[in-house]
Specification:
This protein has about 100 residues and is α+β, with helices and mostly antiparallel strands. The chain has one domain: Alpha-Beta Plaits (2-Layer Sandwich), CATH 3.30.70. Helices cover about 20% and strands about 25% of the residues. The protein is built from three helices and four strands. The protein has a four-stranded antiparallel beta sheet, covered by helices on one side. A hairpin with a 4-residue loop joins strand 3 and strand 4. The longest helix is centred in the middle third of the chain and has 8 residues. The chain is globular, with a radius of gyration of 13 Å.
């Protein structure tokens, strides 16, 4: 199943850093997201788009995970030659992450 089946995402960008939140639709699914959406999985899923560090912050009271990705936007939105390299595109990409369907 896709991550988008359990969660939605919000994002922002500042300079060459993207900030992506993955928010469970239902609080009872948070533990599953926390186990499945790791720093390693996010880094592997986004591949070469992330040139820097990936840091995850857990927000269990909100049912959310927040990822800060440095050196991600090709130098920043105003400096990159890439078309639409904003963090908003990354929020859609992260929701394509495959996770195991519950038993």
């Amino acid at each position: 199943m896709k991550l988008r089946d359990l969660a939605h995402s919000r994002t922002g960008d500042k300079g060459n850093t993207s900030n992506i939140s993955v928010i469970a639709y239902r609080l009872e699914d948070y533990a599953r997201l926390e186990a499945a959406v790791t720093v390693e999985r996010v880094r592997r899923h986004l591949g070469a788009l992330v040139q820097g560090e990936v840091v995850r912050y857990a927000l269990p009271g909100l049912g959310a995970l927040n990822f800060v990705l440095t050196r991600t936007l090709g130098g920043g939105v105003t400096r990159s030659l890439a078309l639409d390299a904003h963090g908003k595109c990354l929020s859609s990409a992260i929701l394509d992450l495959e996770i195991e369907a519950s038993a």
